[in-house]
Amino acid sequence: MTNPQDAPTSASDRQEELDTGIDASLSSTLMRGIEILQCFSASEQELSNAEIARRMGLKRPTVSRLCKTLLHMGYLRKTSKGAFRLAPQLLSLTYPVLATMPWRHDVGGPMREIAEMCSGNASLGIMSGDRFVHVQTAGLPPGWPHVPDIGQSGPLHHSALGWSLLSMLRDWEYDDKIDEIRALHGDDFESARPVMDAAVARCREQGFCVSYGDWRPDLVAAGAPLGRTEDGLCVAIACAVPRYRAVSDYFESDLGPRLAEAAVSIRMSGVFKMSSKKG
């Protein structure tokens, strides 16, 4: 199921944002090349030159030249129909990033226990701009409506994982992040803010929050903040079950508190630290 929050921001929209306040020292050509890669998604894996040009708001010869460069570098590949797809070479860019996160494996045991506890899945997420990114997953029940695979991302302001990450920010960091999200998402952020604010406050007070389909309507998820890594990454954990199987009392009085307790236990390993919200 594809949701509005899932769809990547169109390249033309991003370009409009860049044009209004772009740093003259930045390379617009490099940004456009990366934006071409961002046009692809799990639901749109194959795009023609014309479709990319339409989304980018650029002339087809310009897009053709950029795509040819990405083909040469191995980041795009052509189909038998002449369309483009992302190429496996892109995965080589993620390995150095994942290699800096050995703590992903340290929490594998607790994550599997959480997944078994809720008969669902458990995932670790880190904050990246206005979104979270999954970096580890445990538990993949067959027929699951959503598998939070490594590299998948979602909106901070619409999800239990995102709210848990936001709850870890210091006051000034939180204010800056809210300004960033508001600038990018406008009315969508304002409509989601009351639920987000309540969830962030709950994470800070009770150690967990619950999302009843706020990001993916077919899922109910609980999230809990883990803390910051030594190099400053904010990390949170979440577990989810299909909405048809979700019982609110279970999430509110059983799974949520147990997830918060698990987060405290994981922090005792010393990998993650919780900082004061002040200062």
TrEMBL record:
Record InterPro entries: GAF-like_dom_sf, HTH_MetabolicPath_Reg, Tscrpt_reg_IclR_C, Tscrpt_reg_IclR_N, WH-like_DNA-bd_sf, WH_DNA-bd_sf
Secretion signal, residue range per the UniProt entry: none
Domain IclR-ED: 89-272
Gene Ontology biological-process entries: negative regulation of DNA-templated transcription
Residue ranges constituting the HTH iclR-type domain according to the UniProt record: 27-88
Keywords for the protein's UniProt record, in alphabetical order: DNA-binding, Transcription, Transcription regulation
GO molecular function annotation: DNA binding; DNA-binding transcription factor activity
Domain of life: Bacteria
Protein name, entry field: IclR family transcriptional regulator
Source organism of this protein record: Aquicoccus porphyridii
